[in-house]
Amino acid sequence: MLSNQGFQITPSATAIAEAQAILIGAYGINVNLEPSSPNGQLVQNIAIAITQRESDQAETISSLDPNIAAGLQLDAICANLDIERIKAINSTATCIFTGLTGVTITAGSQVANSNSDIFLVDSNLTIGLSGSVTGTVTAQTAGIITVTANTITTIITAINGWDTVNNPTTGNVGTTEQSDAQLRNTRISQLAFASSGSIPSLVAGASALNPISSYVASNNTNAQIVEDGLTINPHSVMIILDGGGSDLQIATMIFNRLSGGGGMSGNKSFTIPVPNSPGTFTATWQIAVQKALGLNITLRLGAVYPPNLTTVIANIINTNFDFNRIGRYIDSTEFTFLLMNNGIIPIVSLTFNVGTLLNLIDYTMPISDSVGGSILDTDVAINYA
Known about the structure:
8 helices, 4 domains, 28% helix
């Protein structure tokens, strides 16, 4: 049933009662409706049909709500704002092919890495006088496929005169398709970006500056408040940034998006001229303190892992981890998932460090701090057990 409370599916008991009423109306009060009887089975089937029909109707109605819609329907809603779902990207690598001079390796020829992931040769390659030729390959399947150096060594497409293949360097790891939740957030940010005078507008404006990390806190009370050690003045906002454009760009964004008369708090100020006016506007925001992010990983003794492991792990995290964490949650399983999806298997245990806080399983970043935008090889500690 559709009401101002939304669509509510008929409970199973009600559907059964409605089905029984249909048969009683057709055959009379004495009709046998015992569940084990043929008519009883018919009642069950009619009730199932009622609830299934209403479930389909509810799904159709829900698909019109951009906060619930999924898949193709969400794509169609976002298309009205010229927003497209970010497609998955295939992993790529540069390989050296060896064999007899003059042999042509045709585009689409297949090779594989040590995990049996298939890669396709991007273009026709002819082996030169040196007995080798360099070319690129692309993973047959889009998404996160690890491309560790010296792992693409298997030739699948047999070509006379083609002897070996190898990728001497680590390749570019692909990405997964933007999820429904991520696409909904993109839509919300796009709507907020076109507005002004609201917290979502400031959040969208800060994000558009492409900072490493950003956060917007607010205080709508008549007194100062302290959050994570930062003092926020009455009736003001605190825009917290790690990176994100020049002082002029940040101040201009705040001028364009802050409500008239709105207050600001922070440790950084910059003054700009007011357009078409002799006056000036002083913007204030907070510069986040970067805290080093580190990983402590225990791997299985005797298992086979890629060479240069700390470099490989740092590259995986830097490519795939969302470093936008001011005021946000971090869970060790995020790192475990990324590493295992990129071929670092098995992992016995994993904890992380934030600044001087060591061996964390989960942690909510204070609004005063960020974890920067990358980790170094030296931030990865590996043990075996």
